[in-house]
Amino acid sequence: MVNYIILNRSEKIDRALNRVYEVYDNDPSNLDDYTKQDSIILNIQRACEATIDLAMHIVAGKVMFKSEE
Question: Which residues are in coiled coils (predicted)?
């Protein structure tokens, strides 16, 4: 069975991190641009939030599974 929540969160993390890599472009001078800084920070925050959501979903599933035993 495919767990769409896990797939969705994983894709969200991937998109956010790809955007960080795109904007940063391996060039530290990109951090001088406040708009790029904001974009990088926002996407790091999105990735972190999606990671927390993913972890909470997995933990909740394990707790529910364990309580059914």
Answer: none
Among candidate residues 53, 66, 41, the one with its CA nearest the CA of residue 9: 53
Rounded CA gap, 48 and 17, in Å? 10
Residue-range definition of the domain harbouring residue 22: 4-68
Q: What is the pLDDT of residues 31-53, one digit of tens each?
A: 999 999 999 999 999 999 999 99
The domain tally of the chain equals 1
Give this prediction's pTM.
0.82
The separation between CA 17 and the C-alpha centre of its own chain, rounded to angstroms, equals: 7
